[in-house]
Amino acid sequence: MSDEQAVKPGRNQERGVAIWLTGLSGAGKTTISIPLVEKLRTMGYCVQRLDGDVVRKKLTRDLGFSKKDRDKNIERVTFVAELLVNHGVVTVCAFISPYQAERQYARSEIGRFVEVFVKCPLEVCEERDVKGLYAQARRGEILNFTGIDDPYEEPENAEITVDTSEMTLESEVDAIILYLRENGYIM
Ligand code: ADP
Q1: Beta-carbon neighbour count of residue 157 at 10 Å?
Q2: pLDDT value at position 13?
Q3: Half-sphere exposure for 39 (CA within 13 Å, toward CB)
Q4: Is 97 a catalytic residue?
Q5: Most CB atoms within 10 A, among 64, 88, 103, 131?
Q6: What is the pTM of this model?
Q7: Centre of ligand 1 from the C-alpha of residue 130, in Å
Q8: Considering the domain boundaries, does residue 6 fall inside one?
Q9: In this predicted structure, what is the pLDDT of residue 15?
Q10: Maximum C-alpha span of the chain
Q11: What is the pLDDT of residue 14?
């Protein structure tokens, strides 16, 4: 293939993919997504980050944390991610997404879907308590908090698992990039 015909990243000629980070609050989804996006951009890919905290202030600000609302949250986000992926965008999604069925829904709607289980023991997340939410949940000031009084169904078929209580941030990002490369999602 001549240079002119080669697929050039960032020109919408490549196929997109959703990289779906799931895990408890404080597990490290946002922390991983930022350098992951940077790295993919440096490689020339058109990348979009969709983060639960941001989406909930905009697209889904009318929703709470009941199971019904959590499901709606993921369904709307899935719709957006699907549009982006279909337009060749590498879409990094960072959502607690605690229910297996909703993650399965996202997977089947989006198609090109790489699930990353951002694994971290509850005790470690609680110790980190980045946003002070675990303390509030323990005091009963927040209800339906994942891991405290709401379930988290661990992924059974995640393509990648990174344990953030044992790995470095750099090795987590590298593991994701390696998987994408080895499975033909990126070159
Ligand atoms: P989430 O988006 O899953 O709610 P955050 O990314 O907001 O979680 O918070 C994770 C916290 O854990 C951050 O304060 C981050 O610095 C810390 N942390 C410590 N070690 C790691 C690691 N190896 N990978 C990711 N985050 C880590």
Answers
A1: 10
A2: 53
A3: 20
A4: yes
A5: 103
A6: 0.93
A7: 8
A8: no
A9: 85
A10: 64
A11: 65
Give the burial class of 108: count Cβ atoms within 10 A of its Cβ; 0-12 exposed, 13-18 middle, 19 or more buried: exposed
Domain residues for 20? 15-181
pLDDT digits (tens, 9 = 90+) for 86-106: 999 999 999 999 999 999 999
CB under 6 Å to ligand 1: residues?
23, 25-32, 94, 118, 128, 130, 164, 167-169, 172
Number of domains in the chain: 1
Give the angle 72-33-79 at the CA atoms, nearest 5°: 30
The alpha carbon of 118 and the centre of ligand 1 are apart by a number of angstroms equal to 10
- For 1-31, how does the pLDDT look when each residue is reduced to its tens digit (9 = 90+)? 444 444 444 444 568 999 999 999 999 999 9
Those residues with Cβ within 8 angstroms of residue 183's Cβ, 6 or more apart along the chain or in another chain: 114, 159
Q: How confident is the model at residue 39, as a pLDDT? A: 98
Residue 2, in any domain of the structure:
no
Instruction: Name the 3-class secondary structure at 23.
Output: coil
**CATH number, residue 176:** 3.40.50.300
